[in-house]
TrEMBL record:
Highest taxon in the source lineage: Bacteria
Biological process (GO), any one: peptidoglycan turnover
Keyword Cell wall biogenesis/degradation: yes
SMART domains named in the record: Ami_2 (SM00644)
All copies of domain N-acetylmuramoyl-L-alanine amidase, residue ranges: 16-182
Keywords carried by this UniProt record: Cell wall biogenesis/degradation, Hydrolase
SUPFAM superfamilies reported in the protein's UniProt record: N-acetylmuramoyl-L-alanine amidase-like
Keyword Cell wall biogenesis/degradation applies: yes
Entries under InterPro entries matching the protein: Amidase/PGRP_sf, Amidase_domain, NAMLAA_amidase_2
Lineage: Bacteria, Bacillati, Bacillota, Bacilli, Bacillales
Protein name: N-acetylmuramoyl-L-alanine amidase
Amino acid sequence: MIKLNYKEKHIKKHPTTRTGIKLLRVQAVVNHWTANYGASAENHFKYFNETLPNQNDDLPEDDKRYASAHIFVDKHKALELVPLNEVCFGANDGGTARLKLQTLRATDSSYPEGNANLLCIHVEMCVEPDGTIHPDTIARTALVHQYLQRNFKQLRETKNRFVRHFDVTGKNCPAPMVSNPNLWKELLELTDSKVVIPPNKPAVIEAKEENTDSSKTNWVRSKVDDLRYYSKPSWEDKDVAGHLPKGYGFPQAVRKVRVDNAWQYEVKNSEGETYYLTASEEFVSVEHKPATSTAQKPAKPRKSGPIAIGEIKIVNVSAAAIIQDRPDRNKSKNLGTIQKGRTIQVTGSVKGENSDSGYWEVIYDGDLAYITGKFGKYSAY
Ligand SMILES: [Zn+2]
């Protein structure tokens, strides 16, 4: 059972972190993730109490970074860095132009243009070294919500009073709960639960895959007989919508979605109805037909080789990502490396072994090879 373990440890006042300006009222709670891999709540106390103020003191006004949040939650505790009646610099990125929730457009003499921060308590979820949000952190965040609801009656209507940073300004924060809105829904459900039990999985950023251009067709065909397809993203028997004979398929792959630990294609049939089926290379193939009039055609792999469905840009590495001969970082041979920022064609992705983010199946030297999932940012062709 997770305990709230709430501690007040206020940072010193500083014009870039804790101004002491009072909230106009508490209207909403904005949830964030810190995006600081491996940094605990205590680490953030140190950052906002010393590191950032010191850095800012040495910088010209225009270069100073204004940032703060009220409560930092990690898998061990919840730390209140700023009193809950003071303004934090949490969600005014892009100013009023980016404000999506007009109900949070508050003004006062310090912020004549309007600023959501005047009305919000900011809660930050700390991030594990692997970039996930720990189940205990999620559960404790729900307990923090309940604590806030006990102290501020107006927050009791969870659905309308708890928002993501993303909902306020469109920032990709908390990223795992933007890429997968169900994780956010689960946190709100947990907030409304009498007994808060940590989810059985950490919150993970799902590889974002853009919708394919409607002028393109990506047939997804079954390589086997009797392949199940589903009415929604699911592997459950009850959601099976039908079975595909070998060679049959759907004319349009819309995108790939993560379902539990594996991938499915979201597809449309010729009537435009949406279904889901496995994205495993073992069971399906994808044929890509670019629109005939596309001015910029992506480079195609040689005809006899694997077919690319898109490309990834190498990200989240310091210099280069390793290209492996199989999707298992412990057993694979290194075929080469690819520099950060470069792109490489992909045929899909696989779960593989020993990688929480799975592996991209890439085309390297005309053959299939593998790159750890979190090192690639995908764009569909
Ligand atoms: Zn945020």
